[in-house]
Write a structure and sequence with these properties.
The structure is a homodimer.
Chain A (H helix, E strand, L loop, with lengths): L16 E4 L6 H11 L5 H17 L6 E7 L2 E10 L6 E9 L8 H15 L4 E7 L5 H9 L3 E11 L2 E9 L3
Parallel strand pairs in A: 4-5
Antiparallel strand pairs in A: 1-2, 2-3, 3-4, 5-7, 6-7
């Protein structure tokens, strides 16, 4: 799955950022608009993002999808979606992390990721996996994960399409 | 996900093997009994195997799960379950391949895998991924895939549990 994040940033996100974990019906629209606003995802990817919100609304924790939503001034500034990996003892997948384009470059991506890692650690998770593309478009994404302490563990050549491989990053919490 | 296969075998499966692709309600019971009969899978893994059959029965092709079932003398001798990977152009996952213990070592695993690869190629698939454990218990499984032309492309250390990594094999069809 794909993710987009802000460009290089180490500042603290400016003012009034609030996190919440409960998904509400109005997040369907807000997530769709946020994902579209990035200009980074195609329509199929946008539908997948919205479907995960729908799944969570319909099934709750049984959906396997957990959310960390960041609000600024009452609107959705960004969000992360993750879940424990079935059949594993302590591995989690980070499915999405998205920051509103107006707020990129302010450290919001790093802050949300840190918040998400805290949630995963609290739930007994220890290894966080994130998959992204090997394409040039994703170089800032890969650099972001590297800065946040994720290391590339594997590459699957041509996984998404010829010339478009999958890169798997991992972070082991508590190291 | 895990798989079990016969031990080393290159003979043709003996007599009267028939393949079918359509899942029927009675396969719920047959798949459960087959998976249990191997003695290889724990109860959680068995439930996952049965759930995939349920998903296919409930949703048809929209489930994303395709089956190749092998029957011998009217009973289920083995089966494979696979599906195209969403968001990829030509990649497929092989989720399960199971052979009845009475029929292992007769080349049925290889024959079913070949049949499955033909189905995937017909559907426009070109890359087949299969994931298994790095544990010693899975050494015959890994050797089976290697014999069938799959190569290890990646290992994720401690993925399933500490000391239990994930090994990702791939076969590129038409090479």
């Amino acid at each position: 799955m794909t993710e987009t994040i802000g460009s290089a940033a180490s500042q603290t996100p400016s003012g009034g950022l609030r996190y919440r974990r409960n998904i509400r019906a109005e997040d369907l629209k807000a997530v769709r608009e946020l994902v579209q606003a990035t200009g980074f995802f195609n329509s199929a990817e946008t539908e997948i993002a919205v479907e995960l919100v729908q799944e969570r609304l319909a099934k709750g924790a049984a959906s396997g999808y957990e959310f960390v939503l960041a609000e600024s001034g009452g609107s959705l500034a960004g969000y992360a979606c993750y879940g424990s990996i079935a059949g594993t003892q302590e591995s989690h997948d980070l499915y999405w992390i998205v920051v509103h384009p107006d707020l990129q470059g302010k450290g919001l991506g790093s802050a949300m990721l840190k918040e998400t890692e805290g949630c995963i650690a609290s739930a007994g998770g220890r290894r966080i996996y994130v998959e992204t593309s090997s394409r040039a478009q994703y170089a800032p994404t890969r650099a972001f994960y590297a800065r946040c302490g994720y290391r590339e563990e594997a590459r699957l050549a041509d996984f998404y399409a010829p010339g478009d491989g999958k890169v798997i990053f991992v972070k082991v919490l508590g190291l």
